[in-house]
Amino acid sequence: MPDIPAYTDYHPRWLRRRVSTYWWLGNWSYFMFVMREASCLFVAWFVVYLLALIRAVLQGEAAYERFLALSARPWMLALNLVSFLFMMFHAVTFFDAAPRALVVHVGKTRVPGSLVGAGHYAAWLVVSAFLFWLLRGT
Amino acid sequence: MRDHITLQVARYLPEKQSEPTFDEYEVPCPKDWVVLDGLNYIKDRIDGTLSYRWSCRMGICGSCGMTVNGEPKLTCATFLADYAPGPLRVEPLRNFPVIRDLIVDIGDFMRKLVAVKPFIVRRYEKPVSDGEYLQTPEELDEYKQFSMCINCMLCYAACPIYGLDPKFIGPAAIALAQRYNLDNRDEGAAQRMDVLSEHAGVWGCTFVGECTRVCPKHVDPAGAIQRYKLTAAIDAMKTFFMPRGA
């Protein structure tokens, strides 16, 4: 495709509006979309947090105690709570989107999108139950 | 209910003004009148200089798409009574250059539509004497939803990505490409992939989803794009791991 639509040079009097920087604030759907995109930052934060935890464990008991103390600070608890909420939002929007991209056939029959979505939630439940069981034993 | 409603209609006369203005018109508001009826009433009875595009009045031609109270709508399928007591604001479709009043230039969309080859591509056409290309109901169901597109471009007007990056090939063109890719009579998927799998193709889409919400024909262009992303990704993996073919 050409980089610039071919009409641009030839019709200078046509009205062309620039999209506002704040286009996502005037419409609820656009706002939720930007929040969904922003949730990636919190996913990245949890990855960094997990790596920091692993590093503290590898460095020994004193480092681990320092990491626990840091994690117990109010601002860190608030950050992790907000991150958790964004992670949930990220997961739910991802699972809701999955049936739109994933069309599954069994033989010649197309599996309904609701079942594909339900499968994702079921897998989430199973993994969560396993982690709960694993952590309860510690 | 009031028997009249005020329409605030965007006016843009390129030979006279550099910015659009709004003119107000009082039009009748019977329960069976759509916004297009109101515009036709203005054109016929109040102000013959108003310019807008329309044709079939029944949601088939896709000509009368406009922005109604901030939402992309087919004006032939949007009832005035639903907006009573008004006023009701009618503007041209967003994300397109405005030629005059409510008329936008659709040249960019038409060029993109042609680029995805929205027709059945065959390597070899069998002779007419061999009969039709038969298809089962299940095979029809695979693409029927995407074949409902009427090229009204409401999805482009709702898509912020297209507004920000006009190079993005856009929802309707991709949905129509999928309409033919999923048709078992078609053999042109590889040719369409050259256009669809580039950056301005499906990868430009960040799945806002508004295209699907505003579509008057329930085509689900966002779903078509996400499905094609999966197809393109699998194809890229196959090319990477099996460069000489499976």
What proportion of the residues of chain B form beta strands (DSSP E)? 5-15%
How large is the count of helical segments of chain A?
4
Total domain modules of chain A: 2
Question: What portion of residues of chain A belong to β-strands?
Answer: under 5%
- Overall 3D form of chain B: elongated
Helix content of chain B: 25-40%
Using the coordinates shown, work out and report the CATH topology of the largest domain in chain B.
Fumarate Reductase Iron-sulfur Protein, Chain B, domain 2
**What distance lies between the first and last C-alpha atoms of chain B, to the nearest angstrom?**
68 Å
What is the CATH homologous superfamily assignment of the largest domain in chain A?
Answer: Fumarate reductase/succinate dehydrogenase, transmembrane subunit
Oligomer: heterodimer
Strand order of the largest sheet of chain A: 1-2
- The overall average pLDDT of chain B, rounded, is 94
The CATH architecture of the largest domain in chain B is Orthogonal Bundle
Secondary structural class of chain B: alpha+beta
Q: Going across the major beta sheet of chain B, what is the strand order?
A: 2-1-5-3-4
Give the integer mean of the pLDDT values of chain A. Answer: 88
Number of strands of chain B: 7
If you compute it from the alpha carbons, what radius of gyration of chain A comes out, rounded to the nearest whole angstrom? 23 Å
Major beta sheet of chain B, specifics?
5 strands, mixed
Number of structural units classed as domains of chain B: 2
Count of individual helical segments of chain B = 9
